[in-house]
Amino acid sequence: SPAIFYGNHGLDARLNVERGANPGDNEVSFFFDAIAEQTWVRVEGYYVHSTPGSADGIVQMWHDLVNKVDQTAVMTRISGINQLWERAMLPFDYTNFCAGENWYDDVYIDNTQARVELGNASTWAGCTVREIQVPSAWSSTSITFTVNLGSLTSGDRWLFVVDADGAISDGLKVVTGPGRPPVVDRPPVFD
After folding, report:
1. What per-residue string of b and e applies to 46-73 under the rule 16 or more CB within 10 Å gives b?
2. Other CB atoms within 10 A of residue 117 CB
3. Main-chain dihedrals φ then ψ at residue 26, nearest 5 degrees
């Protein structure tokens, strides 16, 4: 069935989309800079299946918050292939006949773009670090989550809400203090 593989391939990193029924069938690849050895990176992806035989799928990938693949009219399934992606597999991929180890932390998979993140800058684009916040409740009027500071252990923090269409709210400064929960002064506003 169709599959997506991501990983280092010697001198570059690659995102492969297999569009057929068998491994390697009608594969399309997107290349970008290799991942440095012994380096933590953040990898994000957003994928939407195409109609079989049509270039109406979406394949987007970010590497350390920088967009590397942005295909909004791509065929992810050839004609006659109706299967959907049914699993995510880790490790994504490691080839070139090299021995290697892959380490993963904070793997988050969802069926929507909607999410909450804390960042280290007042604008989404200005962030060099963002940490996903896993919601325990989400409605049209409120979102409940347990704070995950991750690597945001010092400095100012801003809260961002991404809706199901990928629209990003303005950054809201989060105020914290010893023994007190984070406080945000107003609800998010979408552009």
Report:
1. ebebbebeeeebebbbebebeebbebee
2. 19
3. 45, 50
Report the predicted TM-score, pTM, of the whole model to 2 decimal places: 0.74
Cis omega (within 30 of 0) for bond into 52? no
Distance, CA of 5 to CA of 81 (rounded, Å): 18
Q: What is the pLDDT of residues 48-72, one digit of tens each?
A: 888 998 999 888 888 888 888 888 8
Rounded CA-CA distance 118/147 in Å is 9
* C-alpha to C-alpha distance for 139 and 147, rounded to whole angstroms: 18
Instruction: List Cα–Cα distances, 6 to 61, 68, 94, 101, 191, in angstroms.
Output: 10, 12, 8, 15, 32
CB contact at 8 A, 158 and 119? yes
> In terms of residues, how long is the chain?
191
Choose among 4, 2, 70, 3: nearest CA to 32. 70
Cα-trace Rg, the chain: 19
Q: Do the Cβ atoms of 82 and 96 come closer than 8 Å? A: no
